[in-house]
Amino acid sequence: MSRPLDGMLVVTLEQAIAAPYCSRQLADLGARVIKVERPDGGDFARSYDTRVRGLASHFIWTNRSKESLTLDLKRPEAVAALKTLIARADVFIQNLAPGAAERLGLGHVELRKDHPRLITCDISGYGTGGPFEKRKAYDLLIQAEAGFLSITGTEGDMAKAGISIADIAAGTMAYQAILAALLRREREGVGDHIEISMLEALAEWMGYALLYAFEGAPPPPRAGAGHATIFPYGPFATADGTVLFGLQNDREWSAFARVVLQRPDWAEDERFKGNAGRSQNRAVIEPVIRQVLASLSTEAAIARLEEAGIANARVNDMAGLWAHPQLAERGRWAEIDTPKGLVPVLKPLGGSGWEPRLDTVPDLGEHSRAILEELGYSATEIAELIDSAGDKASK
Question: What is the CATH number of the domain that holds 305?
Answer without folding.
Answer: 3.30.1540.10
